[in-house]
Design goal:
By secondary structure, the protein is mostly beta strands. The chain contains 2 helices and 13 strands. Helices cover 14% and strands 53% of the residues. Strand 9 and strand 10 form a beta hairpin. The chain is rod-shaped and about 85 Å long.
């Protein structure tokens, strides 16, 4: 099979995979369909472009003048998500992307190594229709305090979005073929250092009430003690995450643009191996404030006992512009 036939098979196989995937198995089919459509359009454009380049049959595309050293600028996009399984509700993958600078050294015409520095971006969201919780608190001032006092709460219409940015340092093994149309593949690891992570939560409503073991009574509709119904609440904050270790794969085609310039077009997969959730002890989603009962504290779903593990995952298309030295 020649390299043009290989690229045709690669594009058509990916096209069929995107089109035939059972969207019902995904937690957020609309988002997936949108990303799949974008990837199809981009792949169609890449296929037309590569066909045009291939038809030129330029002798400059041979490996005689291939550079041993390459500097490159990369950009990619597709699905990039914080992956976790909440104990309640559902999680939805979001769009992600990456940019970076790279350096490659080829010690033979076909084999080399590469590294660089870049930034990657991840998004995810979670939805929970309704859930309940409770925990012990100190008895509020003015109420009988001869026994345990329990705060109970009920959330309705819970939605949360999370996003994260990571600095990435890849170490990859590179392989490329020879000939007019050049196929390439790379595999290796990436170290991800957290730059920033945040969450934003909205609630249709939540209701709180207290219960005293001593009196056996429920305490409701007492706003000054923090027992009431609160509607259309919103909060946001930062998230703490750990360094991430990725396994990375990339494959595609290289197109010689000029004696020293080349364009790489391909697909990539980055899979985070380790748990990046930093909270060793679970926080409460809703925190009672004894000093000011009407001002509750909030935490992200990721910081609570409803999430135990979280890793990063991304897949998409990548474009690399390289300059030979």
């Amino acid at each position: 099979m020649n390299h043009h036939s290989f690229s045709s098979s690669l594009f058509s196989g990916l096209w069929r995979t995107l089109g035939a995937h059972d969207h019902r198995a995904l937690p957020h089919s609309n988002a997936y369909k949108g990303v799949a459509l974008i990837i199809k359009i981009l792949f169609a454009g890449l296929f037309v472009f590569t066909g045009a380049v291939s038809a030129q049959k330029s002798h400059k595309n041979t490996y005689k003048n291939a550079s041993q050293h390459e500097l490159s600028l990369t950009g990619g996009g597709g699905i990039g998500t914080l992956r976790y399984n909440p104990a309640a509700g559902s999680r939805h993958a979001g769009a992600g992307g990456n940019v970076g600078l790279g350096y490659a050294y080829f010690f033979t015409p076909q084999w080399g190594v590469s590294t660089g520095i870049g930034a990657a971006f991840y998004n995810s969201s979670a939805k929970i229709a309704a859930f309940d919780g409770s925990y012990l608190i100190n008895t509020p001032a003015g109420l009988p305090d001869d026994s345990e006092f329990t705060l109970s709460y009920r959330y309705e219409g819970f939605k949360e979005k999370q996003k994260a940015a990571y600095l990435q340092i890849p170490v990859m093994a590179e392989y490329r073929t020879t000939g007019a149309n050049i196929f390439y593949a790379s595999a290796g690891v990436k170290i991800g250092v957290p730059l920033k992570a945040r969450y934003a939560t909205t609630l249709a409503s939540y209701t709180t009430k207290g219960f005293s073991d001593y009196t056996g009574l429920d305490y409701e509709n007492m706003p000054t003690h923090g027992f009431s119904t609160y509607k259309n609440e919103a909060t946001s904050g930062s998230l703490k995450t750990r360094v991430a270790i990725f396994g990375a794969l990339e494959t595609g085609m290289k197109w010689q643009l000029a004696d020293r310039w080349a364009l790489y077009t391909g697909v990539y997969l980055d899979y985070g191996f380790n748990n990046i959730r930093k909270n060793d002890s679970a926080e409460r989603l809703l925190q009672y404030n004894e000093a000011s009962p009407t001002d509750y504290g909030y935490h992200s779903l990721i910081e609570t006992d409803k999430v135990s593990k979280m890793n990063l995952w991304s897949v998409g298309i990548k474009v690399r512009v390289a300059m030979g030295l």
